[in-house]
Each structure stands twice: as structure tokens, then as C-alpha cells.
Design goal:
Layout: E1 15-34, E2 40-62, E3 69-75, H1 88-100, E4 104-111, H2 122-137, H3 144-152, H4 158-163, E5 166-170, E6 175-178, E7 186-191, H5 198-203, H6 218-221, H7 240-246, H8 248-260, E8 263-266, E9 273-277, H9 284-293, E10 296-300, E11 308-313
Parallel strand pairs: 3-4
Antiparallel strand pairs: 1-2, 1-11, 2-4, 2-5, 5-6, 7-9, 7-10, 8-9
Helix pairs in contact: 1-2, 2-3, 7-8
This protein binds adenosine-5'-triphosphate.
């Protein structure tokens, strides 16, 4: 994140930090092989977008040597998100204390704007935000790389959200290389009312029997980023091979978007899909069409960074 602006000399006890935790879309996702440990090697292009959860973390008091006392409140409307120690925010706070040896009473408040179980990485981004928040509140001074390494213990998408922007992800997605930032495009993100579990989607991918004929490799795709979103974009999402035959609704949705947009594909393991349009293209008709169908719809630009501190308050 590269932001170290807290006021020196001020005790960080009783302090609150507020962060934006952005969603991501995958502009390309190829599955290279299944590993012996059950995980998959992938090659993906990740892009953060300006659709963000709000994460607020308060360090009420330090407890050196004690065990952390973590509490969590979640505002998520009708979306199902855990409110207990299984929430990725809670797991991130707990991991941070364990790994760095700090402890204290931490209150976490999460307002969900990113739909869960959508392939948009919302939970992972929330976790990255909590790691960054703890690093500041406990004044542990970890750099981005150290936070990314810690994040990888929580999930393959977590490290990406520390720096965000446009990046190539390899391995299970945790080995990251920054790419030139996207410029003029806007993403129409649409999610039908269905949740997909990432592990199940991967488990149903039949390696070597994929029906998607796309074969472009990353060397072909990378140079095309400068012209994104042109209709000849060679990126694709291999996981559509698993999900679209299961879900006629999702298939219809992607086909409808492809009638209007130069690029439309599923994000991650779904069920969100996105269409990329040039900036200035009026998409209000499409937005209305999908909203009336009852889908979640959001128009968001690309974001050049990952989690970000919004403000900082201290009762003194
Ligand atoms: P993944 O690809 O890791 O499954 P995703 O992008 O599809 O992630 P997430 O929003 O990260 O979707 O949610 C995945 C699951 O993680 C949810 O079904 C939910 O039960 C659980 N979860 C735990 N913590 C959170 C959180 N803070 N926000 C959303 N979901 C969370």
C-alpha cells in the first residue's frame, strides 16, 4: 500500500482506522494443472475495481502477552456473511496477532457492498484490509511484501488486495507481478441471486477435457492490455467451462452482455459476471434491464490500488 502516514509519537490505543476494501475482476483466468495437494496452478490477470466494502478497526486496548479479544459487527443486508470467528476479518485479526506476537482488544466493523461468494474476492479484500489496519494500529511496521506473505495464509486472493491495481497472478494466484494499469474502461458487474463455492467449481473442472477452445497464453494476452477493452481481447475464464453448463441463467446473462459489450466474462469462480466498456459508453439501458430482473448491478471503474485507509480518528 505504501502508506505510512500515521502521526508519530501518538499512542495508537483507542484509535480507529477506516479502510476501503475493493472488489476484483479477473480479466483472464487459465487453470494450468491440478497439484498433488489438491490446489490448482493458475495464470490470471487481476484488476481491482471501485466497488468497496467498508472496514473499520478499533484497537481499544493493548494486552501484551494476553490473548486477543476480538469482536465483529457485520452489516450485509440480505447477503449471507458469517458474523463469527469464521469471518475472514476475524481470521485476519487473529492471524496478525499470532504471527507478530501483539495482542489487544480489537473491534471490527464490516459494511458489505461487494456481494459474497461471487468471484469478486470481497472476503479476501476484507482480510487484507484488516491486516493493513492491524499493522498500523499496533505500529508493527511490516512492509507490503510481509503483509502479502501473511495474507497468503488466509487465502490465495488475499495478497493481491494489499497493492491491487492490475497484476499477473501465478501459482495458486499468490505469486504476483504488477502490470501496466488499465486506463479508459468501465466495468458493468452483474450478479444473479446465486452463490457459487470456489472449491466446488475447481473440483468439477476436468483437466484436459475443457470445452472452451480458447488457448491464448499470457505472453499473447499481456501486450493487449494497452488496448483493453477491444473486442479482440484474447483473455478468457477457464472456469466458465464448469459453471455455464450448470447454469443456463448465467450463460444467458453472458450471451446478453456479449451482444452489447466488447468483452463479457465470469469473474473468478462466479457467479458474478462483468462486461467491459469504453468510458463514456451509456450503459443505463442495460443497468435498468438487469436491475429489473432482480440482479445485483454495479458500474465501477478500474482502481489503481488495493486496500486504502480512508480516515483516522482518535478519541485521544
Ligand atoms: P472465494 O473465491 O475465496 O470463494 P469469493 O470472491 O467468491 O471468494 P467471498 O466474498 O470472498 O467470495 O466469500 C466467500 C465465502 O467466504 C462466503 O460464502 C462467506 O461464507 C465466507 N466469508 C467469510 N468472511 C467473509 C467476508 N468478510 N465477506 C464475505 N464472505 C466471507
Amino acid at each position: 500500500m505504501g502508506e505510512q502516514g500515521y502521526e508519530k509519537g501518538r499512542r495508537p490505543v483507542g484509535r480507529t482506522v477506516v479502510l476501503e476494501a475493493p472488489a476484483k475482476v479477473n480479466l483472464h483466468l487459465e487453470v494450468l494443472k491440478r497439484r498433488h495437494d489438491g490446489y490448482h496452478e493458475i495464470e490470471t490477470i487481476l484488476q481491482t475495481v471501485e466497488l468497496c466494502d467498508r472496514v473499520e478497526v478499533t484497537l481499544k486496548e493493548r494486552r501484551p502477552g494476553g490473548s486477543p479479544d476480538i469482536s465483529l459487527q457485520v452489516v450485509s443486508g440480505s447477503w449471507r456473511v458469517p458474523h463469527d470467528a469464521t469471518n475472514l476479518c476475524w481470521r485476519a485479526a487473529s492471524l496478525f496477532c499470532r504471527e507478530t506476537g501483539v495482542s489487544g482488544a480489537l473491534n471490527l466493523q464490516l459494511v458489505k457492498k461487494v456481494p459474497p461468494a461471487a468471484g469478486l474476492g470481497g472476503g479476501s479484500s476484507d482480510a487484507a484490509a484488516v491486516l493493513a489496519a492491524c499493522n498500523r494500529l499496533f505500529e508493527t511496521g511490516l512492509d507490503d511484501q510481509a503483509l502479502e506473505n501473511m495474507g497468503a495464509k488466509l487465502g490465495a486472493d488475499v495478497p493481491f488486495f494489499i497493492r491491487g491495481g492490475t497484476a499477473l497472478g501465478r501459482g495458486t494466484g499468490t505469486s504476483l507481478t504488477p502490470l501496466p494499469l488499465l486506463r479508459t474502461c468501465q466495468f458493468l458487474i452483474v450478479k444473479p441471486d446465486m452463490e457459487l463455492k470456489t472449491a466446488e467449481v475447481y473440483a468439477n473442472l476436468k483437466m484436459g477435457l475443457t470445452v472452451n477452445s480458447a488457448k491464448a497464453n499470457i505472453q499473447v494476452i499481456k501486450p493487449q492490455l494497452a488496448r483493453f477493452p477491444q473486442r479482440t481481447w484474447p483473455g478468457f475464464n477457464r472456469l466458465e467451462d464448469v459453471v455455464l453448463p450448470w447454469s443456463p441463467d448465467l450463460k444467458r446473462l453472458i450471451m446478453r452482455l456479449r451482444e452489447e459489450a466488447p468483452i463479457a466474462m465470469m469473474s473468478g469462480s462466479g457467479s458474478a459476471v462483468f462486461a467491459a466498456f469504453p468510458v463514456g459508453r451509456d450503459v443505463s439501458g442495460l443497468t435498468r434491464e438487469f436491475t429489473e430482473t432482480g440482479y445485483f448491478v454495479e458500474l465501477a471503474g478500474p482502481r489503481a490500488r488495493g486496500v486504502r485507509f480512508r480516515d483516522e480518528e482518535s478519541p485521544g
